[in-house]
Amino acid sequence: MHPYPENIPKRDASTGMINIKFVTTDLGLLYLCSNKQEYVLSKQLLRSGTAIGALVREAEQAESKADFLHKLAIALKEANETEYWILLLGETDYLTPKESESILNDLKELLKLLTSIIKTTKEKLNPKT
User: Can you give the residue range of the structural domain that contains 46?
Assistant: First the structure.
């Protein structure tokens, strides 16, 4: 039996979909790379955005609840960083308002989900007496 909640694999699929959105031309990342030469921003976004799903997958195979918690906490940090890059790209008009709003809405849901799982796991690790 794994130390993680049963809903993680299902949620990870949606995390992957968010990450895939980052690399599709209709959301602008490849456009940034090929046409606007914004390699630094797009590389940072790609790195942090794809790290989220990878860390959640790592958490699925955690060696302990503490390890699970640690990996999800890092995924949460990566999601926060990804939000920063999307906000920056939106504010500098490298993404349209529609593009940035779509990604930010997905990220907000992901941030809520990760925060909730982390909070619940912490409560289970340190129950109040």
Answer: 8-120
